[in-house]
Design brief:
The complex is a heterodimer of chains A (113) and B (114). Chain A has 113 residues and is mainly β. Chain A has no helices and twelve strands. In chain A, 0% of the residues lie in helices and 55% in strands. In chain A, the strands form three sheets. In chain A, strands 2, 5, 6, 10, 11 and 12 form a six-stranded mixed sheet that branches. In chain A, strands 3-9-8-7 form a four-stranded antiparallel sheet, with no helix packed on it. In chain A, strands 1-4 form a two-stranded antiparallel ribbon. Chain A starts with a strand and ends with a strand. Chain B is mainly beta. Chain B is built from no helices and eleven strands. The radius of gyration of chain B is 13 Å and the shape is globular. Chain B starts with a strand and ends with a strand. Classes of the chains: A mainly beta (113), B mainly beta (114). Chains A and B meet through strand 6 and strand 11 of A and strand 5 and strand 9 of B.
Chain lengths: 113, 114
């Protein structure tokens, strides 16, 4: 069975700090990888996704993630966070062709102005 | 484009009572998903429909949970009887059945069982 591990439960940063949220997955095959974000009071929405090709994926709002197959990782990064990035971030994996998502437990990001 | 609609947004019931949640997916989305999100955890898939057929319900506790999508559009999820551990947010998502299959999520129904 596939699983996703997110290393940090709660991250607190000051504005302009750099962000890296860890995500490791377990799956015995080709995967599609996703980061979802849930802003306070809003729906879960897709931040970025990796299906194939360039392992460095760029998403909305300046976020990017790098797929490192040898490490089973898909870490999320942003060079300079803003207060508006305060949200909960979920990493998810789907087996290629299944489209069924398995989510991690989420990382809550708080950005202090 | 209208998003995924869910109702009610909040529901409080006592254990052993029954409850139903409703979801209307984005128009034209053939695939519909129900997830359970317990506090402090990520969403967990309960059931996946393609049109009005069930694709996967392996994680649905069938002794108390049921779901249907009779006309291949909107869907209902029912719990009968509810237990304390069913307290969670129930999320509905929908996607096209081709292309990237990106899932669009609704606002969820927050269920509290007392």
């Amino acid at each position: 069975a596939q699983s996703v591990s997110q290393h940090n439960h709660h991250v607190i940063l000051s504005e302009a700090a750099s962000l890296e949220l860890g995500c490791n997955y377990s799956y015995g095959g080709t995967v599609n990888l996703f980061w979802y974000v849930q802003y306070p009071g809003q729906h879960l929405q897709l931040l970025l996704k990796y299906f194939s090709g360039d392992p460095l994926v760029k998403g909305i709002k300046g976020f990017e993630a790098e797929f490192i197959k040898s490490k089973f990782s898909f870490n999320l990064r942003k060079p300079s966070v803003q207060w508006s990035d305060t949200a909960e971030y979920f990493c998810a994996v789907a087996g290629a062709g299944s489209y069924q998502l398995t989510f991690g437990k989420g990382t809550k990001l708080s950005v202090i102005p | 484009e209208a998003g995924v609609a869910q109702s009610p947004r909040y529901k409080i019931i006592e254990k052993r009572q029954s409850v139903a949640f409703w979801c209307n997916p984005i128009s034209g989305h053939a695939t519909l998903y129900w997830y359970q999100q317990i506090l402090g955890q990520g969403p967990k898939l309960l059931i996946q429909f393609q049109n009005n057929g069930v694709v996967d319900d392996s994680q649905l506790p069938k002794d108390r949970f049921s779901a249907e999508r009779l006309k291949g559009v909107d869907s209902t999820l029912k719990i009968q009887p509810a237990k304390l551990e069913d307290s969670a947010v129930y999320l509905c998502a929908s996607s096209l059945d081709h292309g990237s299959h990106e899932q669009y999520f609704g606002p969820g129904t927050r269920l509290t069982v007392t």
